[in-house]
Amino acid sequence: MFFKLTVLVCLVVFKNDVFGHPSSVSGVEPTLELKPPDVSSHANLQLLPKDCGRIRKNLISSDEKKVSLFEFPWMALAAHKYPNGNKFLCGGVVISDRYILTVAHCFTDLDQESHPVESVRVGEYDLSSTIDCETDADNKKICAPPALDVKVERIILHPHYKKGKFGDDIALIRLASKINFTDTLAAICLPVTQETSSYDFSGKKVLVTAFRLTEKGKNATTPVKENIKYIDRSECNKIYDKMIHISHLQMCAGGTDMIETCGGDSGNALQVVASVNGEQRYVQHGITSLGPRTCGKHGRPAVYTRVSYYMDWILDNMSP
Questions:
Q1: Which domain range does residue 91 map to?
Q2: pTM of the full predicted structure?
């Protein structure tokens, strides 16, 4: 989608090459490991689409990193207002026809008063083109509908989030109008069942997607994807030592290769493939919150807000 916006890096830096804040990223640490809230009977579950997180088959691209045209249609971009035009500074994820899930620090550390987020772009694939197309195996051109810039009605920050503290780093964007789902615009699934909320990450890799800086430091015009290693919380705390403290409300991944999450990834999804209503679907378990300034800085994982522990808050703050 051709645009006059500027894509910038959402990067909040502190010492030791980590974007985030050097103080604790969590609140009071519980003495026992708490389980995610049970939302199986929540009244607002009906607001989440059942046809979510579909895995696209027969994708055109065979590249392990390149995202195909219809592969992750829930990716979104928040546009901050500047005098010379809007700038994409953070990502987000479509979770319903009215809501985008993202992180709170995109609206505090990036000065929401001076540079408010007034719209969200959805259904985007290639930032350098007006009409996004790919050629299939039969050499036939397949094109997507134009991306949409949707006005923002309201931004909802978690009430316990504090600027500069990365605990409870989660936010919802309520769109001013409903969006119609297409092949290039759909919602991801959330961990609302016991099976998905208790997913065992041990020894597994997770998938992260984003419009972000490439390894060479240039803006990618199309989204990228990476399969990265899940890092146990105790191991993650050892790696970060006293710099930050990771609570049960967060999760860590990456840091073993020079390809993982970097500045500019804030608000994007960490997802896994899991069973939803008897089908394999993409389920979002993390929202990129903080991590290395350098993409995939060896030995230093990125930290994600753990979605399953906030499902009650997410549903409580949704409305038709």
A1: 6-316
A2: 0.87
